[in-house]
Amino acid sequence: MKPYSQMTKAELETEQEHVLSLLTDARELHLKLDMSRGKPCKEQLDLSMEMLTDLASAKDCLAGETDVRNYGVLGGLPEARAYFAELLGTTPDCVFVGGNASLQLMYDLISKAVTHGLKNSPTPWKNRKTLRFLCPAPGYDRHFRITESFGFDMIPIAMTEHGPDMDYVEQWVKDPDVVGMWCCPKFSNPDGIVYDDETVRRIAALQTAAPDFALIWDNAYVIHEFDTEYREFPDILSLADAAGNRDMVYEFASTSKITFPGAGISCMASSPENIAYLTKLIGVQTIGFDKINQLRHVRFLQSKQHTLELMQKHAAILKPHFDVVLDALETEIAPLEIARWTKPKGGYFISLYAMPGTAKKTLSLCKEAGVTMTPAGATYPKGQDPFDSNIRIAPSVPSVEELREASRILCLCLRLTALDQLLKLT
Amino acid sequence: MKPYSQMTKAELETEQEHVLSLLTDARELHLKLDMSRGKPCKEQLDLSMEMLTDLASAKDCLAGETDVRNYGVLGGLPEARAYFAELLGTTPDCVFVGGNASLQLMYDLISKAVTHGLKNSPTPWKNRKTLRFLCPAPGYDRHFRITESFGFDMIPIAMTEHGPDMDYVEQWVKDPDVVGMWCCPKFSNPDGIVYDDETVRRIAALQTAAPDFALIWDNAYVIHEFDTEYREFPDILSLADAAGNRDMVYEFASTSKITFPGAGISCMASSPENIAYLTKLIGVQTIGFDKINQLRHVRFLQSKQHTLELMQKHAAILKPHFDVVLDALETEIAPLEIARWTKPKGGYFISLYAMPGTAKKTLSLCKEAGVTMTPAGATYPKGQDPFDSNIRIAPSVPSVEELREASRILCLCLRLTALDQLLKLT
Known about the structure:
Two copies of one chain form a homodimer. Chain A is α/β, with parallel strands linked by helices. Chain A has two domains: 4-44 and 308-425, Aspartate Aminotransferase, domain 1 (Alpha-Beta Complex); 61-302, Aspartate Aminotransferase, domain 2. Chain A has helices at 9-27, 42-45, 78-88, 102-115, 141-149, 166-172, 197-204, 236-242, 272-285, 291-301, 304-333, 359-368, 400-425; strands spanning 33-35, 62-63, 66-67, 95-97, 132-137, 153-160, 163-164, 178-183, 214-218, 249-254, 266-269, 339-341, 350-354, 371-373, 390-393. In chain A, the strands form four sheets. The first copy, chain A, has an eight-stranded mixed β-sheet with strand order 4-11-10-9-8-5-6-7, with helices on both faces. In chain A, strands 12-13-15 form a three-stranded antiparallel β-sheet, covered by helices on one side. The two termini of chain A are 20 Å apart. At the A-B interface, helix 4, helix 5, helix 9 and helix 10 of A face helix 4, helix 5, helix 9 and helix 10 of B.
């Protein structure tokens, strides 16, 4: 095979016919495969089953003198705060432990900024005429959906291999209407990029015009290496504090991809002053989050070291899933030079960049052939990929066998749309 | 003993000296008793321990084809929706099942009304100049704190033995700025009043000027009889629908006082159209609530009938707690005619009305003698009891022995403040 760009029109047409016939055969298999969801597979869930029964007696439910079955302890069990503090490299007084979803803690932060204001807000955000939010893109669709839902202007920021393009970020934050920024700093969704030290340093030192600028630091994959040794990541809270931005950062993490998605525990970390301010506001919303589940998690996960051992078991399950897809792309697509893709060392996604203008068409072909993928554009604010190029691949759930099939079909669809595109241009 | 009002000044002074000396003795016991918290006691928590281990294997975690350990099922497990529907006498399509706190569902409803608007809102509430909320009082302090936090004008509505004073309610809802009303219809907090059929009918048929009026129906004690047979309560949703108010009602319930407070499951029930509208908004905030805990609850609680059997065990534990306090009041206070109080058949509180102007002083004396009570005024909007009279007594947590001591001290404090008050007036 040679790069499509080097083919003559006739060669392209022959190839098109060939690929079309392979795809027609594939369609007749009536497959039903799903590479759309960044969630653990059953084998991974089975790793944490012991946790479900680790609190069995009334005595088990005591955390110090606190009976975790009853009301109270709004900020989270001290044991759970200490656990997350160790995971993030911060201190327990910076940590608030919530319920089963860090997304809810993020949404509620934004929601309360709108209705009540943050600690340093001159006025609640609802009283401001314009609200702008920086959105490194491609990024996590659920982040963008929050700021979209509240009607913010979303400013896309290009991602580089080092993290968000900081030259643009530093310019934009001089605008007083820019009140925050989404970040997924380690194994970013979907590109799997780990922000480098220089990027983290520049983010921590941002000179924002808005006094209540909220840097959302969604450390969803803080210990989620699957193809390399675990590497410490800088503690953004102390870096920001040292740079004079003590109240700027709101960091989030959860056990959704450590124990059970949807039945894990989550945390928000920020300056102790921010945590005190927000705890008071959250105290109007709830008497407290599920402490039984907090204690269950702490007893099972124990410590960062012990959790890293569990993460190696996750890695052993995940890596073959990624390898199948990457191998297929390498064999089937690389020689054709019609797409590029990331080779992540952690996280849950492979991010593929198809020939501009072909992502939507490719995924629609995939769907017709029984392979569901994250909708094209989902990784951009308002679901609009300006290049119609990015495709997010989530290889964790299907079996290795299914992934082999699904990848084969994805590659055929990539080839066909590229051929259509090239033939239109020739 | 005779009523204080019939005593001469000299008799009152002798009695004052006597009570003061008894209270001084009591103070020297250095007690530390707490009748402030409406929460189950340890013995009650122990009733549900089996639930903690009822999901032990991966197979146990299947609800139909859904692996409850993983993401998804935003509106709640069908099994959990059906369970709450039976409890409330409605249908599963009217039910959304949330996390561990119905309070959070209520807060989030109000918060989303403010930021996004409800289904029938002409505009989000944040765009309105004035927002008024009807607050039957005395009522639940955490309800009032939500509407206070969002800056609403809170309109107190007097409680009668039948429920809120409907003549006033019907007048007030003609004001288009009145956007909602708090109700705790069965064993109201703190009075233990069960709204009668006529009150429920009039509420269901309210002619509100606001098209997006939100009737909050916090059915926190829907099956919480402790001193009488369980009695069906009318289904407000079908009554409101029949009266042309299909979208007016938002009903809430939880298992906080059935299994574990703070680690139970909760629900919101409303018209299917409201549930669809709100589910879409909640889908921006979270991927879903804790389905493991939902399934654990459904497996343990099984059905309404089975839950009612559990509630009888709660009742057997709770009733003696209430009896001790009621007996003390009957013996020590009734003959003096200085206070009246409720004799609830369910719920968690005794509501006592001390001589006007003496509640704060009474509770401050209690505190000095080592007995903590809910702060005076807490049961009124903004913590302001216009009569300084209502005292909320929560007898569930202390032991029967402790309650005997605490009641004795409460009675002494009631007597002393009444004597002070009467002597000031003579």
